[in-house]
Design brief:
It contains twelve helices and 13 strands. It is of the alpha/beta class.
């Protein structure tokens, strides 16, 4: 049993990961997680009910209560701000509170889910209106399924249609290489240069170097946070998860992914994470990768791309929404058609 603070944190991470997997299997992750958290909170308070000076003023009462439970170690409330008067009170929950995600989740359940459209013809209908704001979505597929092109097209269209700010983190190509590729595919790269920023691995490696004092992931987080603070970021693409694992040298994959996805959600942008898939690999003569399920459980959504044989000589690209929390989406495969910088998602005609 770990006794250090670091050991206890790892134990907590694995416990939360287990709850996430259980929640996925039950099909209602937000309600399940909230009930687990609240039941634990109720049991804690029955045994360790805090002593605090009650007040008729709602704001003063909330401040006194939170300071009391902060001393007990249940919450960290030093960055929580209360505003209001004797009748009403509003709490801005700080990042230090371990229950912040649950409180935010409860608040969001009362609100209509905001969506970011993809502007891909037919895809928003399949998604039920677009990607929910703040989601971390896996875009999974084999090489050649156009993961990079599709996600760049979404950034490009959002920049053109609604002046949205996009960040493409390229960990496998340099910026000139990626821009040349997208220009060759029919995209007007210059038209969105001010709104779609490409951060490539060469730039990151040059900044970080081989110094152990500047961890790779820390630099990436600082760079993305700075970009958001200065210019704002609505959409992020990370290309790819496998390259990120190698460059960041994940030692504990589950824990690292959990922390990464939570940090991406807290960033406030909607993130598309490209990942390799094992489906349909055998018929293409490719080595089938070992299946990895951690990211599938931790992500808010999964878009699956595949190459589907429709004859002995013809292959058709297909797409489906495997999951998307908070959305009423279609689950079947559709055909993914591309021509000169323009994608279409259309019903499948051939089997």
């Amino acid at each position: 049993m770990p006794t250090t603070k670091e050991g206890l944190q790892r134990l907590l991470d694995f416990f939360v990961y287990g709850m996430l997997r259980a929640a996925e299997s039950l099909g209602n992750a937000p309600v399940f997680l909230r009930s687990i958290e609240e039941e634990g909170l109720r049991k804690f308070l029955l045994i360790n009910f805090p002593n605090f000076k009650a007040s008729a003023n709602a704001k003063e009462a909330c401040e006194a209560y939170t300071k009391s439970i902060d001393v007990g170690g249940l919450f960290a409330t030093t960055d929580t701000i209360f505003t209001g008067d004797e009748n009403t009170v509003h709490a801005e929950i700080g990042d230090l509170c371990p229950y912040r995600r649950v409180c935010t989740m409860r608040h969001d359940e009362r609100m209509g889910t905001k969506k970011i459209p993809t502007f891909i013809e037919g895809l928003d209908d399949v998604l039920g209106g677009g990607f929910p704001v703040g989601h971390v979505v896996l875009v999974s597929g084999l090489p050649g399924t156009m993961k990079s092109t599709l996600t760049y097209a979404i950034l490009h269209a959002n920049a053109r249609q609604r002046d949205a700010k996009g960040l493409y983190v390229s960990l496998e190509q340099t910026r000139p290489s990626l821009e040349a590729q997208m220009a060759a595919m029919g995209f007007d790269v210059e038209a969105v240069r001010s709104d779609v920023h490409i951060l490539d691995v060469g730039t990151i490696q040059k900044e970080v170097g081989k110094s152990a004092s500047k961890p790779w992931m820390d630099f990436l987080r600082r760079t993305m946070t700075t970009k958001k603070d200065i210019d704002g970021v609505d959409l992020v693409v990370i290309d790819s998860l496998e390259a990120l694992e190698v460059l960041a040298k994940f030692e504990d994959r589950r824990t690292e992914l959990f922390r990464l996805f939570e940090w991406l959600r807290d960033l406030g942008a909607t993130t598309l994470v490209l990942a390799e898939a094992a489906s349909e690999a055998s018929y293409l003569g490719l080595e089938v990768p070992q299946p990895r399920r951690d990211e599938a459980f931790l992500a808010d959504g999964i878009i699956e791309l595949k190459m589907h044989p429709i004859s002995d000589v013809e292959i058709q690209r297909r797409i489906r929404v495997q999951k998307m929390r908070g959305s009423h989406h279609k689950t079947g495969f559709s055909a993914l058609v591309f021509d000169e910088g323009h994608f279409q998602v259309v019903p499948v005609i051939s089997p």
